[in-house]
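We emphasize that the prediction below concerns an isolated chain of 134 residues; any contacts that depend on oligomerization or on bound cofactors are therefore not represented. The input was used exactly as deposited, without trimming of termini.
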Amino acid sequence: MPILHANMQADLREASRLDQGLRVSLIDMASIRQVPGALDFLGTVNGALSDTGLVRFWEGGGADTFSLTLAEDTAQAETGIVDSSVAVAVVRHALVRNIGDLADLTGSAGDISPESLAADAVLGNERTFTNSSW
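Result of the prediction step, given as a token string:
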């Protein structure tokens, strides 16, 4: 449904100005992309002819501890590695909003405008990126 002047005239214009301060204080502005080491690049599916990539893991990096032996000449059992894999699929997310010409022309600087819609899209992108319920 497009954003029209007729839809906003009665109540949304004033409410959006009063609500903006509360909205800014409630939104988590932290981005996981800004935390060093929080994300690892594990490859790309470019040119793979598939939208799914297989990421392989093993418990390296000191996950296994050395065993205590009873004597110098005691045989020790082999320690195997624990491995697994995860299929990661590329997905598409979308957000579409339309604003009518009259709604845009009759708006004020703090109202719904192309600039505020663009800022909303940026924040929506960050929230989608950090959402764990994909």
